[in-house]
Amino acid sequence: MPSLQAVRLRSTAQAIEAALPAAVLEVVVTGSVSRGVADDVSDIELLVVTPEQLELDDCFALAEACGLTRLGTWGRQGVPTKRVSGYRDGVPIELIWWSRAHAESAVDAVFTGEVSSTADALANGLALRTSGLLAQWQERLRDYPDELAAARIEDAALTWGGFAPAGLLTLVRPGERLALVERMVDDATRVVRIVFALNRVWQPTLKRLADRAAALPRKPDRLAERIEEALTDPDPLRAVVVMTELQADTVALAPDGPNIVRARAWLRDAIAILERRQQGSGQSRRPERREPAGSDK
């Protein structure tokens, strides 16, 4: 059952849809509103598909005609995707405008390996107006090809190896917090990419990760909690240990491939180096790690 706020925001989204011209082919609400989990800080995200590509000024004019105020735009300009932000009834709104041709290209790109949240948004989208296109896209997205999953997993593991694992120690030096966070955010993002590919589920954005990952049968133990712990631990060495152990648990679940096999060995060596540094600094060793859920080992 959708949250009360999701119901309220859907009503606002439907009012926007009703004010759009009849020529608009699809109006799809996405994000937390479509999934029924919106809360008091959620916005409304709408995908608007038109027969032909519109200019940004046209999108602004249509948004204003739908009752949106305080209009703005974001992201790259001069590209097929047009973005208009605004407010209606005090609710923040994001309108994404695609032509039909670009929409079809965006769906095709999902299957060529492009990493984006497009597939998740469409797969969980809720049509407020449709000419049948959303149903066609969702039917295509029901199949997550094995070869695409394997390619995404291998690509995600690319940076875990190829240099001396002792190099991680440079991240725990005083004054290196920015470099540390930069590396760990990238590592966490790659962990999430592998986990969703393992489960043949289209990767969402990183918001509400604990909820989105809860139903996945194959994942490291305490996935979201360990990412949160690594990113918030004030001790750099402990933070790197937590993240590196999470990476190791993740690749233990993955099928063999050149990057995954290399990553397993590299992460094993990295953990040994980090544990020796912990012992040398007087830190207590972390509790023994449990095998990741779904592991065949």
Question: What would the keywords be for this entry?
Answer:
Beta Polymerase, domain 2, 297 residues, 12 helices, alpha+beta
Q: How would you describe the overall organization of this protein?
A:
A six-stranded mixed β-sheet has the order 3-4-5-2-1-6. Helix 7 packs antiparallel against helix 8 (177-198), helix 8 (177-198) packs parallel to helix 11 (236-253) and helix 11 (236-253) runs antiparallel to helix 12 (258-281). With 297 residues, it is α+β, with helices and mostly antiparallel strands. It is 49% helix and 12% strand. The model has no long low-confidence stretch (mean pLDDT 94).
Identify the strand order in the major beta sheet. Answer: 3-4-5-2-1-6
Principal-axis shape equals elongated
Q: What is the third-level CATH name, the topology of the largest domain? A: Beta Polymerase, domain 2
The CATH superfamily of the largest domain appears as: Beta Polymerase, domain 2
CATH architecture of the largest domain: 2-Layer Sandwich
